[in-house]
Amino acid sequence: MKILFIQTGGTIDKDYPKTDQGFAFEITEPAVHRILSRIQPAFTFDVVSLFKKDSQEITNADRAQLKVYLSTRPEQKVVITHGTDTLIQTAKFLGTIPGKTIVFTGAFKPERFKDSDADVNLGLALGAINVLEEGTFIAMNGLVMIPENCEKDPVSGQFITLKDNLE
């Protein structure tokens, strides 16, 4: 099995700035590389950096580009790392792409942080992609959800289900 990982940006890929002009973080190389090097995966994979944007900067034109790109790739299993602010919006925009199982994930703290949730969320996405059928899903906060049945809680920031998710 081969999994395609697509970086779109977001907190999961943020790193300390390479300049000394403030404390703003920069989106750098895909965190997926570092996480996968720690787990020694038993599958082949490819990592593509499609965007390096904060999710609030991702446009519908970017989403359309992502959808077209996915339709040109041969991989059936795809994990997309994305910023959490508009992750659900992008997942809904993609909808179901015939022949593809797509799982979106991200992190609330950069993978570079010791207490980041990046490893857990990516691990959840990997477990999910191995058992899910065709469709688009979200793997966050220990839950696997379909985009239409989840939301990001405005108080806690966690992704929550609105009803039984995978029925």
Automatic annotation (TrEMBL):
Coiled coil: none annotated. The active site is at residue 11. Residues 2-152 form the L-asparaginase N-terminal domain. It comes from the Bacteria. Substrate binds at residues 55, 84-85. It holds the Pfam family Asparaginase. InterPro entries: Asp/glu_Ase-like_sf, Asparaginase/glutaminase-like, L-asparaginase_N, L-asparaginase_N_sf. This is Asparaginase. It comes from Roseivirga pacifica.
